[in-house]
Amino acid sequence: MSGGTFSLLIIGGYGAFGGRLARLLGEEPRLRLLIAGRSLEKADDFVFDLRSPKGGAGRLGSNDLGAWLQAVTFDRDGDLREQLTRLRPDLVVDASGPFQSFTGDGYKVVRACIELGIDYADLADSSGFVAGISGLDAEAKAKGTFVLSGLSSLPALSFAALEAMAPHFSRVDSVAAGIAPSAHVRIGLNVVRAITSYAGRPVALLREGRPAEGRGLIDEMRVTIAPPDVAPLASRTFLLVDAPDLALLPGRFAGLQSTFTGVGTEPQALQRLLRFAARLVEVGLLPSLTPFARALQAASHRFAAGAHRGGMFVRLGGLDHEGRRLTADWSLIAEGDDGPFIPVLGVELLVRRLLEGKRPQSGARPAAGELSLADFEAAFSQFSIASGIRLDYQEEAQPLYRRILGDAWEKLPPALAAIHAGGTRLASGRARIERGSGLLARLIAGLIGFPAAGEDVPVAVRFAADGEREIWTRSFGSKTFRSWQAADPGRDRHLLVEVFGPFRVLLALVPEGQKLRLVVRGWRFCGIPLPLSLAPGGDTYEEERDGRFHFHVEIGGRLTGLVVRYSGWLVLE
Questions:
Q1: Smaller CB count within 10 Å for the chain: N or C?
Q2: CB 349 within 8 A of CB 375
Q3: What pLDDT, on the 0 to 100 scale, is given for residue 103?
Q4: Cα dist. 88→7, 34, 74, 84 in Å?
Q5: Hey, is 324 helix, strand or coil?
Q6: What is the model's pLDDT at position 239?
Q7: pLDDT computed for residue 3 by the predictor
Q8: Based on the number of CB atoms within 10 Å of its own CB, is 163 exposed (0-12), middle (13-18) or buried (19 or more)?
Q9: pTM of this prediction?
Q10: pLDDT of residue 490
Q11: Distance (Å, rounded) from C-alpha 473 to C-alpha 485?
C-alpha cells in the first residue's frame, strides 16, 4: 500500500463475480482497482459503465469521489512475473476460473504472487484446488504473504455458518450444504463449465464414516430453505456438486459420517433434464457435458421461471451436549438480484479489513473459517438478504409453532406466544364473519363447516395436542368446525400443514413486526397436488393489539372468490 492507496488487481474483473466485486468496492476512495482480463476492450467497456452515473445517485463518475479505476490486460498464460511487476498490486483476487479446468501448474498465478511478495485470494469452487493450496503454506510464510483460497459461498460462508452452529453439538455426524440460485439470475459461462466438468463423474464424499464416491449432478437431496423470519423458498431437489467443503469437512469434525454439497436450480424440470444428461455421461453414452456448457447456459436464461429469489442452506446433524439428537439448519434467502453478490462478500470484507490495517496471518490455506457468520451478516445488511438458524431437538417435545419458527419464536409478541404455547388450552372472544356468495364458495364452506355470516359472534377455540399434531376446534355461536395442524416432516420441511376435511394447505409462518402472517405455499385435495396459482389464499395474520390476541383469516381463490373471512380477538381461559 503506497501513498495511502491500496492497489487491488481483479483477474476476471469484468466477469460475473469480478464485476460485482468491483461494484461493491468502486466507491472506496482509498482503492486503486485494476479491472483485468485478456480483453482490454471488454475491461474498458466495463470501467466506462461503472463510472457512468446511474439515476443521479452514482458516486463513480469522478476519481475524486470513488476508487481510481483502470482497465488492464492480464493473461494467466503469459509472463506472470512481468505483468505483476508492471501492475504492482498489493492484493490479487482471482475471480475467473473455472478452477476445475486448470491444467499443468494450476497454482502458477499463486506462485508468482508469493515470489513477488503479493497477497492473494480467490473465489475457487474446486475441491482439489482449494484443498491443495496448503501445499504452498511454507513458501507463503517465508515471504510474509497470505494466500486464501475459496473465499466464496462454499467454503468461506458455509464454514462460517457451521462454526456458528457447532457449539450446540458434542458430536457432528452429518453436514450438508447447498445453493439455490434464482432462476432469473444470469449464470456465468465459467460457472456452467465448472458444473458440467464433473457431471456424471465420481465426486469424493463421506458415507457411513468412510470415503466414498458420489455421482456429480445425479445424487440428490430434497430441502426446503426456510430462514425463521421470511417466507421459505419452494421445496426443491439439490444435485450433488463438487465443492471444497467435501474435501475440508473430514478434517474439521472427527468421526463425521456423511457429507453432501448440492445445487438446486429452477425450474426444476430443467434440472431434471440436466440430471438425465449426467446419467448419459455416467453410462458412457456421452463423453462429457462440458461441450454443451454454452447451450446449457442459454437454456437457463431462456427458460427462467419462478420467484426471483435465491437461497442457501447448511445443515448439521448429531448429538447435543446432553446426548439428544439435534439437527441445526442455517438458511439464507436473497431477494431479486442480490443473491449473486453473496460469493464476493468475503473478498469485500477482506479488502475493507486490509484498508483498516487488519491483515490475515501469513501462509497459504483454504478460506474456511477465515470469517465469522457475524462478519457476513454485517455485509448482508446492504442487501435484501435474510438468514437465521433453527435447532430441532428430535427427542424434545416443543410447541408446534415454536418448532416451525425456530429463532423467530423469540420475537413473537407475548399474546401470540401464549396462544401457541402448546398443550391443551381454551380461548374465547368475539368475531365478525363474512361469507362468499358464489355457488362454489358456498359448497366449499358447507363441506368444511365454516360458520354463517354474522357480527359480534361469540367464538371459542379449543387447542388439543395429539402427538405431533394440534387439533383446533373452533366454535362460532352454535356452529363448530375442526381442523388439525402439524409440521411437515418431509419435502416441505419448516412449513405448517393445516387439514380441513379433504383439503391440505401448506403455510409459511412469517413474522412481520407485531404480526404473524400465514402465507399459502401449496395445497392438496385428497392428497393430489394442485396448482399454487389456484390455492385458497388471502390476507391471513395474527397480531397483538392492546395486549390481546387478534386474528384475521381470509380464505378464497380465483375459482371460488371469497369463501369466508373472519376476524376478532381471543383471550386464554
A1: C
A2: yes
A3: 56
A4: 7, 10, 13, 6
A5: coil
A6: 96
A7: 53
A8: middle
A9: 0.81
A10: 72
A11: 11
Q: What is the dihedral of CA 161, 163, 168, 169, to 10 degrees?
A: 120
Compute the C-alpha angle 132/135/137, nearest 5°: 125
CA atoms within 13 A of residue 358's CA, in its CB half-sphere: 8
The separation between the first and the last C-alpha atoms of the chain, rounded to the nearest angstrom, is 69
Q: Of 141, 554, 122, which is closest to residue 362 (Cα–Cα)? A: 141
Apex 178 CA angle, 173 and 180, nearest 5: 155
Largest CA distance in the chain: 88
> What contacts 135, CB < 8 A, 6 or more positions away?
107, 364
Q: What residues contact 73, with CB distance under 8 A and at least 6 apart?
A: 36, 37, 38, 39, 40, 43
Q: How many CB atoms lie within 10 A of CB 11?
A: 23
Rounded CA separation 570/434 (Å)? 18
The closest alpha carbon to 100, from 74, 132, 147, 146, belongs to 132
Distance, in Å, from the CA atom of 152 to the CA atom of 162, rounded to the nearest integer, reads 15
Contacts of residues 168-171 at CB distance under 8 Å and 24 or more positions apart, as own/partner, are 168/320, 168/321, 168/326, 168/328, 168/391, 169/316, 169/318, 169/319, 169/320, 169/321, 169/326, 169/328, 170/318, 170/319, 170/320, 170/321, 170/323, 171/255, 171/318, 171/319
- HEC secondary structure over 362-405: CEEEECCCCCCHHHHHHHHCCCCEEEEEEEEECCCCCCHHHHHH
Residue 505 forms beta bridges with which residues? 498, 523
> What nine digits make up the cell of 330?
442455517
Q: How many CB atoms lie within 10 A of CB 61?
A: 13
pLDDT of residue 62: 41
Per-residue pLDDT tens over the stretch 497-534 = 999 888 888 999 999 888 999 998 888 888 888 887 77
Cα separation of 72 and 41, whole Å? Answer: 9
Question: Residue 482 and residue 120: Cα distance in Å, rounded?
Answer: 63
Instruction: Using 70 as the pLDDT threshold, list the residues of the chain that sit under it.
Output: 1-3, 53-65, 100-104, 395-396
The C-alpha atoms of residue 134 and residue 137 are separated, in whole angstroms, by 5
